[in-house]
Structure formats: C-alpha cells, structure tokens
Design goal:
By secondary structure, the chain is an alpha/beta fold. The chain contains 13 helices and 13 strands. 38% of the residues lie in helices and 19% in strands.
C-alpha cells in the first residue's frame, strides 16, 4: 500500500463463514492484517484472547486503535445477521466506516436506510455495500458514478439470480420441463435447500430495491413491489418434498408460457428485475418476474451470469452492460475488500 495512505484498522465480522474465510485469504494476499476477528458469540481484538461479543466495545476499540496510529476505522460485515446490521447506525455515527455484503437493511424500510446515509454523511464515515447486488461486479459503484457525472438514469434491467438464470435457460426451447430444471438445479447445489426461496423472486426483489434506491428513485418499499413468483400458489405452503413432487403438474402451463414468448424468433424468457424511472404508473417503476426479451436484448447473451443493463440519456438506445459471476465466496470477498480499500481515499 502507498505510504501516503492512512493505515486501515479493520474488524471482520463473520470471519469463520464462507465469505469470511475468503476475505481473510484475500487480505493476506495484500498484507492487510485484521485488527479484530468477530463471530456470532466471541471476538478477538488485536490478536488477544477470545471474549464474548460486545459490538459497542468493538467499535470503541477500533476507534482507539485508529486514533493511536492515525488510521481509518473500518468494520467489514460478511454475515447475514440482522443483529449486526442493527449496529451500522451507531458505528457510522462514531465515525467507523462500514463495508458489507449483507443486503437486508439496504432493501428494508426506506426510513432506516436513509438514516444510515445521514449518519454516514454527518460523521464522514463511508457506507459501502457494492456486493449486495451482483457480488463483486461493479454495479452499484457504476450506477452511482453515472448519476454523479450528470447521467439521467432511465432504466435498469437485471438478471440477478444465477439459480433462476439456470432454470429459465434449461426450459428454453423445451429442453427441460420446469420441474426437471428445478430438480436438476437443486441436485447441482444451485438452489437453497428449499428451492422456493429462489423461485419466489424475493432475493431478486431485494436487489431491485437496492438498485432503485441507488438510482435515486424515492419511496421504494419491498412489500409494495410487483413480484411474480415462479412458485404455484397451491405449492407455497407444503413440504419441500411435496413441492418437488407436485411441481410437474404445472409443467405444461409454464411450457406454454415459454413457447408463447419463443414464437418470436430469437426471443427468450428471463427472470429479471426492471427499474423504470420514467414509468408513469408508480406500480410499473420496479417490477420483478419473468420478462420476455427479443433477440437483440443483452439478457440473451448472459448465460448463467448476472447481467445488468443500464439505460441513460447518454447510454441509449444501447445500454451500458455489466456482466459476470454474481455469486461465490472469492468474488464476494474481494468485492468487500475493494470497498474496505476505498475507505482510504
């Protein structure tokens, strides 16, 4: 690291998890030693002994060390814990930058999200969550930079689930039925233990809320979105086993939906999010569900990747496209690390 940059004092919360392990490995590669290591019940500060977790004390210790060495205090959260997210506001208010892959609070109630932005702006600490959409892909930073440099964001379209990209790709052209595609995806480890957690579109919807907020769209709340689930209503509440065995009864209906789209040569059905800042009806501004895409649409070259297409007053009619792996420990961890390093600027 350049000697002109202030040293980083970094606490890693969730260091024993998959992304946390990858983050420590990436930090080692660039000779950045963590000041504190925190897991669900214990924490270790400055290579000391493990003690019970105390998030307030953690924040204070990070600040003390940063003050002592003239450094920048940062907490990196690679958990999925709402308890940890409850600490973001006090940490930011104290001047501790927060870098996180934990998307919950950023797709939650807008007033809470806005309070984090105010705390960050007031203290000067940074709030970085690039990896909450698209893992390590430079999506949120690109979107923010476009707005800052006078672009008017017109529309954002995104394939934001590798699982759903696989399923929709498998049913294209009648290669598989919906039930076969879902069963295959589960056997390959692409889905959650309960595939309905992927098929209901809620994870895509959370990412859509985050994109909408970064794009500057006001009054976006997750519980008010238009979300079309791929889970048949009759199978929403049964066991996983009954869901998997009963899904084949709905294969023909879904196959017809796919075939109708594919009647237009080159067209494909994708599961996607759309944020349309120019839509007149508020209900049409953030939409999540199956999307019919003509032959020339960028989604048709996405394969299993995440892909975001951003249309602005300058990137039109051809949008700016960001594409690549949207999940995985290493790409997520290095995305969080990039956020951590940005706190030196």
């Amino acid at each position: 690291m350049s000697s002109s940059k202030k040293p980083l004092v970094v606490a890693v919360v969730g260091y024993t998890g998959g992304v946390g392990t990858c983050l420590l490995a990436a930090m080692k590669q660039i000779s950045l030693k963590p000041f504190a290591l925190v897991r669900s019940s214990t924490m270790k500060i400055n290579q000391g002994v493990e003690v019970p977790v105390d998030y307030d004390a953690l924040g204070n210790q990070v600040i003390l060390e940063a003050t002592k060495i003239g450094g920048v205090p940062v907490i990196a959260d690679v958990t999925a814990s709402s308890t940890v997210q409850d600490q973001y506001h006090p940490w930011l208010s104290k001047g501790i930058s927060v870098c996180t892959a934990n998307k919950g609070i950023f797709a939650g109630k807008e007033d809470i999200y806005q309070s984090l932005l105010v705390a960050s702006s007031t203290s000067g600490a940074r709030l970085c969550h690039e990896t909450t959409v698209g893992a390590g892909l430079p999506i949120l930073g690109t979107l923010a930079s476009l707005r800052a440099s006078s672009h008017q964001i017109h529309k954002i379209e995104g394939v934001l689930s590798g699982t759903l990209a696989y399923v929709l790709g498998a049913v294209a052209g009648g290669k598989m039925t919906l039930s076969q595609a879902v069963t295959n995806a589960k056997e390959l480890g692409y889905t959650e233990p309960d595939p309905r957690m992927d098929l209901n579109g809620m994870d895509v919807a959370r990412k859509a809320v985050i994109l909408a907020r970064i794009a500057g769209l006001p009054a976006v709340e997750l519980d008010a979105l238009s979300i079309e689930s791929l889970v048949p209503p009759a199978l929403e509440s049964c066991s996983v086993e009954d869901f998997l065995s009963g899904l084949s009864k709905h294969d023909e209906e879904f196959a017809q939906k796919v075939a109708t789209v594919e009647e237009t040569p080159g067209s494909r059905l994708h599961y996607a999010a759309k944020v349309d800042l120019q839509a007149e009806d508020p209900k049409d501004r953030v939409v999540v569900g199956p999307m019919a895409c003509e032959k020339t649409h960028p989604f048709n070259s996405a394969g299993p990747d995440n892909l975001i297409a951003i249309t602005t007053n300058f990137y039109s009619p051809r949008p700016l496209v960001v594409q690549g792996a949207g999940a995985g420990g290493d790409v997520t961890a290095t995305g969080v690390l990039a956020d951590v390093l940005s706190c030196q600027r």
